[in-house]
Design a protein that fits this description.
CATH topology: Maf protein
Structural class: alpha/beta
Radius of gyration: 18 Å
CATH architecture: Alpha-Beta Complex
Length: 207
């Protein structure tokens, strides 16, 4: 018989302010469950040779969920569901991660301008019993208009590209480059709300 227990909050295993804002938009209460100083969280995002963008983002999301669950068990935390997510950008079959420096950011944005690319976000929810629900995958297409080199350079100087897959955030100044989207705006931001809400309800979150 399924448990009827519901939970008033979740643990969010992400440092992304955008994901926090999107959960607040849903009315979901959360507490942060961030990596410990001894964890190499960035290593989880390394790509594997020949890996597709979809396989990559689902694998990384699952690895983040496993790490977050281990963090919860090791610490003095009350049991509650955990949410993790990962977003990547793909063009020409290549994964564009977070830029290493300004030159890398400029090169990524120059590659995207005048073309359509894919944004994929995977979402995982580990329920309070420690079971990871089937991972949801949101896929969206984003069309960048052609842009002058000076406009790309100004955007890079703003600092906004850093820490973001594909070197841009749709909710920020990069909106000036975006001609159209086909898919989930919140998914492009980093947390597709339709899929996330379904997972949270399955994990018996009260919101």
């Amino acid at each position: 018989m399924a448990s009827s227990v519901t939970y008033p909050y979740i643990y969010l295993a992400s440092q992304s302010p955008r994901r926090q804002e999107l959960l607040q938009q849903l009315g979901v209460r959360f507490e942060l469950l961030l990596p410990r100083p001894d964890e190499d969280a960035e290593a989880l995002e390394n790509t594997l040779p020949g890996e597709s963008a979809a396989d990559y983002v689902v694998r990384v999301c699952a690895a983040k969920a496993d790490a977050a669950r281990a963090r919860l068990v090791a610490g003095a935390h009350a049991h509650a569901p955990i949410l993790t997510a990962d977003t990547t950008v793909s063009i020409d079959g290549h994964i564009l991660g977070k830029p290493h420096d300004a030159a890398d950011a400029y090169a990524m944005l120059e590659r995207l301008c005048g073309r359509t690319h894919e944004v994929l976000t995977a979402v995982a929810v580990v329920d309070a019993e420690g079971v990871c629900l089937p991972i949801a995958l949101s896929r969206s297409l984003v069309r960048f208009a052609a842009a002058l080199p000076a406009a790309i350079a100004r955007y890079v100087v703003s600092g906004e590209p850093f820490g973001k897959a594909g070197a841009y955030g749709i909710q920020g100044r990069a909106a000036e480059f975006i001609e159209r989207i086909d898919g989930s705006y919140s998914g492009i931001m980093g947390l597709p709300l339709f899929e996330t809400a379904a997972l949270l309800r399955a994990a018996r979150i009260d919101f």
